[in-house]
Each structure stands twice: as structure tokens, then as C-alpha cells.
């Protein structure tokens, strides 16, 4: 464990533009630096480093955050490893802290398990080369069309069909009973004797992202249908099936290079695709896709192509996995093999060139796929068609990006000949229901320490202008930007006594002033991420503290880091036209913070008032609006129009009544 004082020294010593400059050619641009993104193949620079804030932002990939975030993203390493990389650059010696007895015991247990499963992998491989193993295990692999080269590449093996052949060999090699059981290699009978869990099976080692063996999959060669075809290692300190992907250690570099991951169902699908020259492929190890597995893929790409065999029932059962991919911010395509084929069998029927052409050119958008799949069973039945639409609405609602949701609503409306407005409404309802359910679950599970951080994905689509984001979000971003930029700055304000007769000047932090104004003027944030950042300031101020900007780039949700980076870097990268369009000016605000705050708050009040007028006009246009109701609404509109004029005059802009 790296001591806290060493971590602090690394952070204090490291110069962000110096470290990132080792990876990216940076050019000075005002108070920031700009360069070509190291994460995409862009030609126009959209990668920014802001030394004053200690952050980077890559607009082409959506990545952003602190220096350590950059190193972790670029090198694909953990936080401690990123610290070590930066420490080496500055010749900072890391003397890891002495661990507690419990920590040492847990690490020793993991190392012991790792030694056991590593031994087992080699033993299974050796058994495959015995006369018995060749006759049964190796002949099976050859019958599947696997070459000796690919068998060695995946370190495939064989566990003999004897109850304790492997157990006895392991004990003779010095491995203890409890470790053999804990690793899942052995099971214990009632009389205490051990037996081989995988006896009579060909073996597929499951390895983590670094290539370390963590568990096994075993396929029976027995034709008895009562026997499970596949066994996986049980959960252990080494093997967590919800966070493991078969083949990830061999696929990660190619996934990063081509920026896409093929997701298949089984071990043999992965092996067959490698043999035919496709290496950016992983399997979910015989389990339903999990959030942990998606997070592992997302370390290397956000693009996933799900490969299905031709079985319609199986495809319907897998639709939940697609929704989960979307919910986690992935971009999903689907490829369906001819009926009766899977990646393994199809690779045996066509040439390598034909197979690669098929998987690269035959994929389709996931919503088109789902629509076609479910439409087949719906026919002209109106009830089944309604169910189809509801299912598609639920899928679209999983997409975190509102712009992508809008595009898909338009596509499905045209595809199914539905009213676009109706679909928009239903999707919005579903999004609201899902968010409420998440909040309810979070509140129910909340203890005294953790703070709920919404699961949101803030990456912006490369090339999309920021004007496509909602006006309210932009105004909230500007308010939070002021908070992040100047929260710790001191401002002098006039404080009044309770009777309002006497006043005096007092010094407060800008953060305290803003939180007070937001609370007294009853302003709420509609974007969960800006609400979270504001709540952190509020809770800290209640404790007599002011969080620094760095708080949001260390030890917090990755999406919050990106949000904070987006907001802060916008000042250094947005055009003057954009600022003028939204009446947001930042040049002299540093000298007039109270005025800048008032203007930011007024803009939000103005936006909300105009939105209320729009809602009111919709009611007036309604056919069922009575005369009395119409008169009441008109009086209310006149009042709101006056408010708009008052607010806009303060800002110095002219807004005509609607």
C-alpha cells in the first residue's frame, strides 16, 4: 500500500502538462495547452490541458479528468499503478506501507490460490499430451477444428475421468486440502475425502486482463444429457464470474486498436474466431452479461458488436444484455449468423476472408435488430404491436445520451409509422420512472457514510455542437463553473440585521454566497451531475469546509470527473459566438463575482419563466380549455411576460413576448 504522504508528494510534484507532454505534443494556447487526442484518430486538435485546474479534456473521445485519470486511461492501469508511473518520472521513491496482519493474510491466501490454479493449468495441459489425454481430450479439440497452435495459445487441457487423479497429484505437489477446495478444483465428500470437480472434462483456463489464471471452464465429454455440459469454477477470492471475460487478456490490445469488441456466448466461439484471424473477441463465460463485465470492456472501447446465432428464442432471451450495455453508455451493434450457425460452426463453413467480411459488414443497429425480431411475432395484432413499441421505448430509455435518444426516437417513429411526439413522451416517462427507481434503491441502501452518485454518462458525441444540449443544462453548467472556478475565493457582501435597519460588510467565500442564493431563491438543478456537485458544496459548508476543485477529480465517480472537466475546460475552448448566443461572458467575472452570480441566477429564472409560458400556451391551445380557464391563463401569461421583461432588462437583452 502506498503511504498517503507519498501519494500527496506525487500529486504536489507532478506537473500535468509535463507528464501528458510525454504522450501528446502540446502547444500553448492562452492559459491552456492543446494537442491531437491520443485516444482517437482525429486530425483537428480537440485535446486540452488546463494547468491552473490540473485537468485534461478530450472532446473527440469524451474522456476527461485529472492527471492520474489520464495515465490510467492511456496506460490501462489501476490508480496505484498510475501513481507509480508518475513517481518514476520524478524519481520519487515509493516505500509501500507495512500491511496489517489481516491484509497480509488475505494477500497470502490469494497468492496461494493463484499458485494452485496456475499449477492446475499446467497439469491439465500435460494431461492433454498423455496417451489417454490425446485419445480423448486432444481428439475432441481436433474434432472441433482447433489446431495445435491455437490449443497452446489458449492453454487448453484435460482432466482425466477419475474421481481423484488431479487431487492426488496436487497433494503430492504439496498443495493443501483447504486451498484445493477454496480454488474450486476439488469438492469435499461427507466423509471428508476430496474429489476432482472437473473430472472427465476438457479444460478452458479463464484468465484476468493481465493473463493470470483465475479459474476454469470444463466441458464434459460424456453424452449423458443429465450431466451439465459445462462447469465453471465457483466464486473465490481469485475468480468473480461477474467481472471476468473469457479471452480478454488476448483481445485487449486489438480491441483498443480497432475500437470495437465482439461479444460472443461461448469459449469455443472465441477460440474459433482467433483461429480465423479475429482477435478482438470475448465471451461472458457462460453467464448473463453483467455491469462488471461491461466495465471491463469499456476500459478498452465503448463499441460492442453482439454476435448471435440464428436461434430466435435465444436472441430474445439475450435482449436484456443489450439494454444493459446501453444503460452503461456503450454503443451497440448486432450481428446474426444464419439459422443453425454460431461463430464457431460458421467459421468452419467459410474462408477466413468471407468470415471477416461477414462480421464486419453484416452488423446492424441494435434497435433495427430488436424491432425486426419482435415484429416477426407481432404480425397485425394491435396488442402485440403495442407491446413491441413499449419494449422499444424501454430500450431507448436505457440510453444515457439525450441526443442519441432523440435520434432513435425519430428512427423508430419512421420505421413503425408512429407519431414522433408520442414516442418522445413515452420515452421521457420511462426515463423518469427509471431515474426515480434508481434514487429509491439508492436511498433504501444508503448508510450513514456513502453519498449517492447518479449512474450517468456525460461523454459527448464527437463532432456534435454544444448548442444541441438543452439550454437549462448549459445554464446550470455555467453556474457550477463559477462555483468550481471561484468557490474558495473571498467576496465582501453587505449583511443586514434581522430588523433590516443596520448593515455591515462581511467577508464570505464565494461558495457560501452561491449556496445561500440558490437556497433562498429556491433554484433546483435538473441535471443529476450538477446537482451532485452542488450537494457536495452544501454538505461541506454545513461542516464549515469548502471543497477544492481537486475534490471532484480524485476518489469520485468517473462521470462526475468528466462533468467537472467538461464544465471547466469549456471556458478555454468555447467560441465567442457560443458565449454570445447564450449571454454567458467570463472575461471580467473574476473582478465582479457577485454580479456574475446574479447574472447566472437571473438567466436560470428567465429560462424557467419562458418555459412556463410555453407550457401555458400549450394549455391555451387545448380544445378542452374553458372560457374561464382561458381568461385565467391569459392573466397568468401577462404576469409572466412582465417578469420576462424585468429579468431581461437586468441582463441587458431584449426578449419579445410570445
List the helices and strands and how they pair.
Elements: H1 4-13, H2 16-20, E1 27-29, E2 32-35, E3 47-50, E4 55-58, E5 64-66, H3 67-75, H4 79-89, H5 101-128, H6 131-143, H7 148-153, E6 157-159, H8 165-172, H9 177-182, E7 186-188, E8 194-196, E9 201-207, E10 213-220, E11 230-232, H10 248-258, E12 261-264, H11 267-275, E13 281-283, H12 291-298, E14 303-308, H13 312-317, H14 319-327, E15 331-336, H15 343-349, H16 352-361, E16 364-365, H17 366-378, H18 382-397, H19 402-416, H20 420-445, H21 471-486, E17 490-496, E18 503-509, H22 510-520, H23 528-542, H24 558-573, H25 576-581, H26 593-621, H27 627-651
What is the structure about, briefly put?
By secondary structure, this protein is α+β, with helices and mostly antiparallel strands. It folds into four domains: about 5-90, DNA Primase, Chain A, CATH 3.90.580.10; about 110-240, DNA primase DNAg catalytic core, N-terminal domain (Alpha-Beta Complex); about 250-435, 3-Layer(aba) Sandwich (Dna Topoisomerase Vi A Subunit, Chain: A, domain 2); about 465-650, no CATH class.
Question: Mind explaining what this structure looks like?
Answer:
- The chain has 658 residues and is α+β, with helices and mostly antiparallel strands.
- It folds into 4 domains: 4-89, DNA Primase, Chain A (Alpha-Beta Complex), CATH 3.90.580; 109-238, DNA primase, catalytic core, N-terminal domain (DNA primase DNAg catalytic core, N-terminal domain); 248-434, 3-Layer(aba) Sandwich (Dna Topoisomerase Vi A Subunit, Chain: A, domain 2); 466-651, no CATH class.
- 52% of the residues lie in helices and 12% in strands.
- The chain has 27 helices and 18 strands.
- The strands form 5 sheets. Strands 1-2-3-4-5 form a 5-stranded antiparallel beta sheet.
- Strand 1 and strand 2 (32-35) form a beta hairpin.
- Helix 3 crosses helix 4 (79-89), helix 14 (319-327) packs parallel to helix 18 (382-397) and helix 22 runs parallel beside helix 26 (593-621).
- The longest helix has 29 residues, at 593-621.
- The protein is globular.
